[in-house]
Recover the amino acids of this structure.
């Protein structure tokens, strides 16, 4: 692919967000709330929903639009994280598989099971025996549900796998995992939070966060459409994703922070169809996992892991990333024709460490200023699949702080997010 094509692709965004972001009719300005959430991605939306469902008064401030950042630029998978078994993240996989099952029940209009195929070749680093062992463990961590089981496809079926390269092919395994529209899921969770009473404002840029000595509430000052506003909150949940430490730097007294690395992940979109499901392949150059995914009549391929510095709002695919993904896809689908029609990039937040980002833990980290009664929680990382579980963890952390008579809400649970069906939102295109 030449540089001109790459530059053209960089300017084409990923899947368009819906025209409307769910917001409350009332503004948060001038109010006292129990919980303020900063950030309208999936982690912030989940935290707002959980706190509102628990009976607390909640406000959420989002600087741009909900689900416009990483929460709209993922691989759009609700999955257990099969590859995390290699780094022994068993608890993360078990948790993710359980959350996948919950989402299939509360959001069947947004999450569905699709077939995943793992082709194994003579030059693939992981042998058929290794893949079979991993899938067996995956099934066990999924409580051996039908949706967690796998099979080895007989050779006679290989020619029907969307033009998959069969030269050197030793085995093909098929299992099931979940697919979603990540932006639509985020907006549905946010709409649920609004239905539960949360106040949601978009276009709200936080300027200062202060808590004077002896005060029990944070004063948060923010701007929206040129108007300066403020509110007071007993607890602040910093769910700003890649901006998490920038938001923490606005607070006085300063909350603790964690050193992080930002890692860019690019996806590309190609013409063509994959009718048999999703393909989980191994990049020949570095043995990373790369998915080829059917998406709205096209093929989406991702993702990369590239260190990123600078303003998170400026992250964009690089020519090398686009060429890398294109080469991987065409290695396994040699008849794939046409140039890249779209490319987009999001950012992962990972704990700072040496070595490859591919092998680092993907568990979410909650950082607070107090182990017993925190008034500040910063959310580092997090997976799309596990947003609800992360929100429950946050809620358990802040409930002791909100247990006194100083709260605004009742503190009496009005809904259970494990069983609360996510709303159907008009104008959301999920599978068409």
């Amino acid at each position: 692919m030449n540089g001109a094509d790459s530059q053209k692709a960089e300017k084409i965004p990923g899947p368009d967000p819906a025209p409307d972001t769910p917001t409350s009719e009332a503004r948060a300005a001038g109010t006292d709330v129990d919980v303020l959430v900063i950030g309208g991605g999936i982690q912030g939306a989940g935290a707002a929903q959980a706190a509102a469902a628990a009976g607390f008064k909640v406000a959420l401030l989002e600087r741009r639009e909900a689900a416009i950042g990483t929460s709209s630029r993922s691989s759009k998978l609700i999955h257990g994280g099969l590859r995390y078994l290699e780094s022994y993240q068993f608890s993360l996989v078990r948790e993710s598989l359980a959350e996948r099952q919950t989402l299939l029940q509360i959001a069947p209009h947004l999450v569905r099971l699709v077939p995943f195929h793992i082709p194994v070749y003579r030059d693939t680093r992981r042998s058929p025996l290794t893949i079979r062992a991993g899938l067996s463990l995956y099934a066990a961590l999924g409580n051996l549900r039908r949706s967690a089981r796998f099979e080895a496809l007989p050779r006679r079926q290989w020619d029907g796998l969307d033009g998959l390269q069969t030269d050197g092919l030793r085995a093909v395994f098929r299992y099931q995992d979940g697919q979603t529209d990540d932006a639509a899921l985020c907006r549905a969770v946010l709409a649920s939070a609004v239905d539960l009473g949360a106040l949601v404002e978009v276009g709200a840029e936080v300027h200062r966060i202060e808590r004077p000595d002896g005060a029990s509430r944070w004063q948060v000052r923010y701007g929206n459409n040129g108007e300066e506003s403020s509110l007071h909150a007993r607890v602040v949940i910093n769910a700003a994703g890649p901006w998490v430490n920038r938001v923490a730097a606005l607070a006085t007294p300063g909350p603790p922070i964690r050193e992080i690395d930002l890692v860019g992940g690019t996806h590309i979109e190609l013409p063509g169809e994959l009718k048999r499901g999703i393909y989980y392949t191994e990049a020949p150059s570095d043995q990373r996992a790369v998915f080829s995914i059917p998406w709205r009549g096209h093929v989406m391929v991702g993702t990369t892991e590239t260190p990123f510095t600078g303003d998170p709002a400026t992250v964009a695919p690089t020519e090398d990333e686009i060429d890398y993904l294109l080469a991987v896809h065409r290695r396994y689908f040699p008849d794939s024709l046409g140039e890249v029609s779209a490319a987009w990039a999001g950012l992962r937040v990972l704990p700072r460490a040496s070595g490859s980002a591919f092998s680092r833990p993907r568990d979410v980290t909650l950082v607070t200023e107090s182990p017993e009664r925190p008034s500040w929680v910063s959310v580092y990382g997090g997976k799309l699949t596990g947003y609800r579980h992360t929100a429950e963890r946050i809620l358990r952390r802040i409930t002791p702080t909100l247990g006194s008579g100083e709260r605004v809400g009742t503190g009496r649970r009005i809904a259970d997010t494990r069983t609360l069906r996510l709303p159907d939102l008009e104008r959301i295109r999920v599978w068409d």
Remarks:
- The CA atoms of residues 117 and 174 lie 5 Å apart.
- The chain is about 20% helix and 30% strand.
